[in-house]
Amino acid sequence: MDLYQELILDHSKHPAHAGLREPYDAQTHHVNTTCGDEVTLRVNVSGSGEDAQVEDVSYDSIGCSISVASASVLAEEVIGHPVAETLRTFEAMRHMLTSKGQDAGDEEIIGDGVAFAGVSKYPARVKCALLPWAAYTDALAQAGVDISSATTRTGD
């Protein structure tokens, strides 16, 4: 088993920041209808505009090791960071996961997210890895955060 597989398994067995917490500004529930994975995600944001900061992300994730591990990595990569930076992290994850194996990811931007590079070769599993990230951007939008920089890209 390679290091990345071990990293995904470790995040799925010991998910960081798991469990729904208060306070929160928005909560979303997303389901991957292909396989049944589910995630309920809460986001707490302080400030607004360019000063917006992710104070907390909490979640309850039920599903395969990829979706649970992805939620864990998401929480580690966004809590305590400016929203704009987290949206760049989301974009880098999405690009890597939809690259069909052509993008190995940049550890400086996505941290442990690079472990999911191999997932991009399996289209059915890409949805598992992106599920928590889609819930995250949805929760940000529901919290009143401008996520247009993360939703205006084409070509993916």
Task: Set down the secondary structure blueprint.
Blueprint: H1 3-13, E1 26-31, E2 38-46, E3 53-62, H2 65-78, H3 83-97, H4 107-110, H5 123-142, H6 148-151
Antiparallel strand pairs: 1-2, 2-3
Helix pairs in contact: 1-2, 2-5, 3-5
Could you write a compact summary of the structure shown?
The protein has helices at 3-13, 65-78, 83-97, 107-110, 123-142, 148-151, and strands at residues 26-31, 38-46, 53-62. It is of the alpha+beta class.
Count of beta strands = 3
Please, how many helices? Answer: 6
CATH top-level class: Alpha Beta
Radius of gyration: 14 Å
User: How many domains in all?
Assistant: 1
Largest sheet: 3 strands, antiparallel
- Beta-sheet strand percentage? 15-25%
Helix/strand/pairing category: alpha+beta
Mean pLDDT: 93
Order of helices and strands: HEEEHHHHH
Keywords:
3 strands, three-stranded antiparallel beta sheet, 156 residues, globular, 6 helices, Sufe protein. Chain: A, iron ion binding, alpha+beta, 16% strand, disordered C terminus
Describe the structure.
With 156 residues, this protein is α+β, with helices and mostly antiparallel strands. The chain has one domain (3-144): Sufe protein. Chain: A, CATH 3.90.1010. It is 44% helix and 16% strand. Strands 1-2-3 form a three-stranded antiparallel beta sheet, with helices on one face. A hairpin with a 6-residue loop joins strand 1 (26-31) and strand 2 (38-46). The chain is globular. The N and C termini lie far apart (30 Å).
